Structure prediction request, 530 residues.
Amino acid sequence: MFSMATQLFINGLAIGAIYAMVGLGIALIFRAVQAVNFAQGEFVVFGGFFAITFFSTIGLPVWLSIICGVLATMIMGYIFQRLVYVPLQRSTSITIVVATMGVSIALTDSSRIIWGAAPRLFPEILGSTVIAIGDLYVVPQNLVILVAALILFITQYILFERTFLGMQMQAVAQDKETAALMGIKVNRMIAITFLYSSGLAAIAGILVAPITYIWSTMGSGLVQKAFVATIVGGFGSVPGAILGGLFVGVVETLCGGFISSTYQDAFAFIILIIVLIVRPMGFFGEETMDKA
Amino acid sequence: MLKLEAVSTFYGNIQALKKISLDVNEGEIVVLIGANGAGKTTTLLSISGLIRHAEGSIKILGQDISKMQPEEIVGLGCVHVPEGRRTFPNLTVEENLKIGASVLIRNGTHMSEIKQDVEKTLERFPNLMARRKKKAWSLSGGEQQMLAIGRGMMARPKLMMLDEPSLGLAPILVQEVFHIINEIRQQGTTVLLVEQNARAALNLADRAYVLETGEIVHAGAAKEILHDKQLIDAYLGG
Prediction:
């Protein structure tokens, strides 16, 4: 019983780290442009497919395929920003949100046309031999996910909280007009946010591919979970997106293991409903910070 | 330093500025006065590039800024301290000041120099020094205003535009703000000031323009306008 719980906990943390990466991308873009990017899940799919193509079709080594896959997705994120966000930046948030939904559908079908409807596999980075630690059996890819997530989140913390670039990005997130008056290149900061967020999504796709496979329509399901994670954590909060993701991953995996695996996907939404009733602003939700 | 010729600015179909011409010479304090909605803030927004003017020309140090982005206009040495302070609420006092120097950092000024500027600015504002690690949202209104002015000074401006810096402040702080503006001028920065507190502003300024519904209805030496009872009664509500 105990070892099963521990095992499920580790699996849950790994899938939660994936939700956290996707949710973080959603939260960062939301902070920068006050709109939810519903196409974030498709960047996960494209990131996974790009890496698979570089590896299986072109024949690059695994590490190079990962790097090229992430870079290709970041370029896609930049183009997405130029073609979708920039022309609409003076419209209301809801216009931008609907546009991202449209792009999401278009990208889902494009990926089906390019790579077909069948799920595709990317190799496990540390192989597939299950590691036994006492009673625990750990899939090596889960460890890869957790270590990669830890490195990413620490790097991001340093980048955002300890560098001048990060400070400027925060200023843009808080007040774009005043940021421009300070001489900050607002559009460049927003472009960097999109680049970074699409890179995060690609890494999530490449990391999760060996466990769940990658298929063209998986993006919307992933975005829903990531969205739940960001709301549970406190919408627009960076630590909230990370902890919300881990929390949702762990709880749904534990409930799936002990209660019903058929309803595993439903548990994320039950968590969402409970959190919205008990603490609507989420774990890290900011009460209004402005002084009159 | 600054020259506006026949500048018109629109919000949709509404014309907020009607062929405004004004100039500010180096070393001056010039004040724009007038009632609410007269176009004072719009004038500043047009100069700093946050609103694009439709007609006329705006020149800063001889350079036409009509096609320039706000961040490029700051690069010319023209800093706009906006109405309502607009400090970055979730950045600390120190970070707000550093952000004020964004344009210098972009042009290659070393961070160590910026840090020295931060120290100098904090020494000038003892209240901010005591709260340097606090987030800006936790400051009082007066402290936020000082921070907004200090942040503007961090860009080492040649021309500083201040929009209603005394708004909503206690009388003693209003005095302090005007004192600081005078100091800024003495350090060699030209000042364009927008104020509803007309008497205090006119006492400080060299010259003034009076705006009414988007037009300049009077221009002249500040002292002259201050003693023109008719003008004061007509446009400045006594």
